[in-house]
Amino acid sequence: MYEFEFVKPTTVADAVAALGEEEAQALGGGQTLIPTLKQRLAMPATLVSLTGIAEMKGVKAEGGTVTIGGGTTHGTVAKEAASAYPALAALASNIGDPAVRNRGTIGGSLANNDPSACYPAAALASGATIVTSSREIAADDYFQGMFTTALEDGEIVTAVRFPVPEKAAYIKFEQPASRFALVGVFVAKYADGVRVAVTGASEEGVFRWSEAEAALSANFSAAALEGLSVPADGMIGDLHGSKEYRAHLVGVLTKRAVAAA
Amino acid sequence: MPKDSGIGASSKRREDVRFLTGAGNYTDDINIRGQAYVYFLRSDIAHGKINKIDTSDAEAMPGVVRIFTGKDFEGVGGLPCGWQVTDRHGQPMQEPPHPVLAQGKVRHVGDPIAAVVADSAAQARDAAEAIVVDIEELPAVIDMKSALKDGAPKVHDDLTSNLCYDWGFVEDNREAVDKAIKDAAHVTTLELKNNRLVANPMEPRVAVGDFERGTGNSTLYTTSQNPHVIRLLMGAFVLGIPEHKLRVVAPDVGGGFGTKIFHYAEEAFCTFAAKAINRPVKWTASRSEAFISDAHGRDHVTKIELALDKDNNFTAIRTETYANMGAYLSTFAPSVPTWLHGTLMAGNYKTPLIYVNVKAVFTNTVPVDAYRGAGRPEATYQLERVIDMAARELGVDPIALRRQNFITEFPYATPVAVEYDTGDYHATMDKLEQIADIAGFAARRKASEAKGRLRGLGINCYIEACGIAPSNLVGQLGARAGLYESATVRVNATGGLVVMTGSHSHGQGHETAFPQVIAEMIGIDESMVEIVHGDTANTPMGMGTYGSRSIAVGGSAMVRATEKIINKCKKIAAHLMEASEADIELKNGAFSVAGTDKSVAWGDVCLAAYVPHNYPLEDIEPGLEETAFYDPANFTYPSGAYACEVEVDPDTGRVTIERMMAADDFGNLINPMIVSGQVHGGLAQGIGQALLENCVYDENGQLLSASYMDYAMPRAGDVPSFEIDHSACTPCTHNPLGVKGCGEAGAIGSPPAVVNAVIDALNSGGKKVAHIDMPMSPARVWAAMQG
């Protein structure tokens, strides 16, 4: 990697200030950024570590909402959200391997918005609110395509608020090498309807499958999805699976998520 | 009762203590005072003409010692190829030069263009980015059949085409085979690909070159399976350093799987540069570099036809294979698709007529060479797949079809020029049927169906030629080396032994297994024997470890040397006990006079050899040290029968291996635990090839599977608990231990079992799928099910 300055502020305000400097970049758990740096594919002047900010850590459950600090690791979410939002905790417990889960953070994952990452599916299907250093963003407005979000430069994901659904499940079909989602489907049933979010499949990144949502809102059962499918057009096709295969998996996994919810 | 020491005991691997406690000494652990670091600037395009390399800015960068390009190697030899194949028409293969650093052209992504030597690894890499390279991109040839078309871009401009050789074997059988296939009652035809693999040993390659100004001696520390071979190839053919002025050390090596056999440019570079700058030079590959610079494996495209008569007897086999050589000929590349592949096409079956055609092709990809099994997995895969397909087409039981065609009389001369000394294929199949509980499969299939899964059972056999190899034979076949092995047994005055072997252990457990043999022969404790390997300065000239050869060839050399020691000890003991040498017996570590109670302990005889006060100096020399070289009379022929049970999720195409069974005949076993470990590792590797691993280039020659994000290695969760058996044993008839070798079997025998099982599962679910190429990823299986 190239040389860089390293700062580790202890408050969000200090972090925002540090990120205002020229060529500064936020560093969460580093599970994407550090490999990128090692391959010399990025050259930030300063890395602003967010791991020393106590106010960005922890899981809180109250009044039907689970709030997770942006700097909370997957491992912590897996443990501490297990009773309040089991489907979310289960998702976190199956990201990467133990080393990844002990370093990687929810804020880092959502800020990066990898098209195959798990957390975007949870946030979108839960209708979560992304709380940043300057505002609150609804998940529906937050995800704007592969590796693209509503975040402005220097804006930090400080917390994510998840309304707890009545029922939910996430089913990930793993890409055999990376074990990211080849396709992952998160289904969440709320009093006012069902939300279905799909990761890994689309060239546009995580998306809601509205046809399935409508069918499941009327009848929350796998049978309600019979005959529904997403078009292969716009799906990712690569050496791990064709567009058609991914489109097919969206249907299969949605049914399985409903059955598991 | 299992033994607790000596031959046949499952002694714990003594080397694991240091490996598991972080006390190993790997090449990257070697740091020499004053060493500089090299970074290789590698081509990021597959094919191009080098117009200019401007290093002036880079040379001015901090810490840079010197920058080398192909020009610096103009007076230096290229990397040699160790095997010359003669084609169907009696002509030698086309053999292009392989420069240490690219000259004139780059020929694959990863081809080294320049080497920056600097005070630190980071400075070397920084400076490499400042090199300005002007390369004119040329169209790349990636697909083998396209590479052979008229007008295809040529990888090497000086060759007549991209065809390295067109090999026919046995050429004299060609017409008879054609006729037999034409006249057959049934012919099964299968076209398949044997997927390209990246070996991925846990330890990436490392080289440290050192030059001693005071003596003029060069030393190379390197991650090699065969340090003497590297010393010979690099010294004689590349750098012109006589062997007595060159030492090659391969200390602890973290896995090889074939890819660390070959002599690589980085080794020659570090040795050359250390002398040129008069400083040690170190290179440590990154994992990314390993993907584009370690020789790859497999990559065959094959059409095989199996002819049967009306009674389902095999009458002929005809194959046509395109074998990818990559951009240059790696050290043993030409031998893999020919002599290590064609000679195995008879398999376990008495097929009277066989013709194998292989076209080896240059492409703009990383060189391809031996990878665990090397040619034999490719032969086994196509043969056992086509037999399975024939059984399905004919509606006969795949085990019965195999049994009907088994070779049953030994020695057996195949129509592809080898003679199997022993084997009992019915016995291994019997064992397999037992451990696999074939009879219970129907019930297990039913249980799988009840949970919505398709269950399949795949069976196959394999034969391999190991214990490589009789030197006079391989010499006739084009090898430019002998393939004996060596051992020096040094007995110390106090009775302990050091065995210096030309074999090299990089995971095989030689340090444990070899002492078991010597301890058994002498009747002493295993802990009295120490194995030394991996350093040309203190081991006799040996050919190293690959091709499941170490116990069969290296172990035999060790036996011969130990026999010499014992014979000498008997002379000394006879003198000490004033008896006749013919009456001396060695038992449980003591020499005794037959029929008397006179005896002298092993240690006393050893002491007498080094303190020869009462010693027959007029008849024998003092000291106890003997060397033996062993050249095998034949290959060894391990064989076995494997079975695999899979479940297929019909909704996703995902295959899970539910059971994997292996019944092997390795001849006699030295350490059954180590043998089991070798089989386990091989099975995991074979499952990796069958389900996961896939090295893929795009049409421009960019490696798409260039990291673990896209190249799937098997993990613990991908394999079941294996059920294996080595009890069906027919000892090898021509080596002193009766051993055959076990290192590659698992990787050879398992891919066809897995594929056969998946095809069986899909057909059981009503899907008429005849074949799926490896790796059988969920996407491929699903696509096959869509018809």
3D architecture notes:
The complex is a heterodimer of chains A (261) and B (787). With 261 residues, chain A is an alpha+beta fold. Chain A has three domains: 5-49, Uridine Diphospho-n-acetylenolpyruvylglucosamine Reductase, domain 2; 54-163, 2-Layer Sandwich (Uridine Diphospho-n-acetylenolpyruvylglucosamine Reductase, domain 3); 167-260, CO dehydrogenase flavoprotein, C-terminal domain (Enolase-like, domain 1, 2-Layer Sandwich), CATH 3.30.390.50. Chain A is built from ten helices and twelve strands. Chain A has helices spanning 12-19, 33-38, 74-80, 86-93, 98-103, 106-112, 119-125, 139-142, 210-218, 243-260; strands spanning 5-7, 24-27, 46-49, 59-62, 65-69, 129-132, 136-138, 157-163, 167-174, 181-190, 193-199, 207-208. The longest helix of chain A is centred in the C-terminal third of the chain and has 18 residues, at 243-260. Chain A starts with a strand and ends with a helix. Helices cover 28% and strands 22% of the residues of chain B. The longest helix of chain B is centred in the last third of the chain and has 27 residues, at 550-576. The two termini of chain B are 55 Å apart. Chain A binds chain B through residues 39-40, 173, 176-178, 182, 238-242, 244-245, 248-249, 252, and chain B through 125, 129, 288, 651-654, 691-692, 694, 696, 704-705, 708-713, 777-779, 782-783.
CATH architecture of the largest domain in chain A: 2-Layer Sandwich
The CATH topology of the largest domain in chain A is what?
A: Uridine Diphospho-n-acetylenolpyruvylglucosamine Reductase, domain 3
User: What value does the average pLDDT of chain A take?
Assistant: 97
| Morphology call of chain A | globular
Mean pLDDT of chain B: 97
Overall geometry of chain B comes to globular
Give short descriptive properties of this protein.
heterodimer, A: 261 residues, alpha+beta, Uridine Diphospho-n-acetylenolpyruvylglucosamine Reductase, domain 2, Enolase-like, domain 1, four-stranded antiparallel β-sheet, B: 787 residues, Aldehyde Oxidoreductase, domain 3, Aldehyde Oxidoreductase, domain 4, 4 domains, seven-stranded mixed β-sheet, five-stranded mixed β-sheet, globular
